[in-house]
Write a structure and sequence with these properties.
The chain is of the alpha+beta class. Helix content is 29%, strand content 13%. It folds into 2 domains: 42 residues, no CATH class; 41 residues, no CATH class. The chain has a 3-stranded antiparallel β-sheet with strand order 2-1-3, with no helix packed on it.
Amino acid sequence: MARRNYGFERRRREDLQRGRQEAKRQRKADRAETGAAGPEIGEAQDTSAPAGLWEWFSASRGRAVTTAPNSRPPADEPDDWVLLTEVPPGSAADTPPGA
C-alpha cells in the first residue's frame, strides 16, 4: 500500500539533511576564521616508553611492559619479548638472553 504523504516525508527528510549540512559548513567556516582545530584534530600523544625505561612487547602474551635500561623482562616460556625502544648499538639488548 502506497503512503499518501510520501512527497511530504521526502521533502521533510531533505530539509533536515540540508539543515545538517548547512550547520556543518557554518562550523567549518567558524573554525577557519578563528584558526581553531575541530574535534577530530588534536595534539599527537606520546605513545613511547617513558624516558629512561625500555619497552618490550610479547606477542604470545599480547602486552607490553617497561623495564629498567639494560634489563629484560622475566624469561618465562615462551621467551618472545621484542624490544620496542631504540637503543644505541652495543647495549645489553643486542646480546641474546643467557649469553
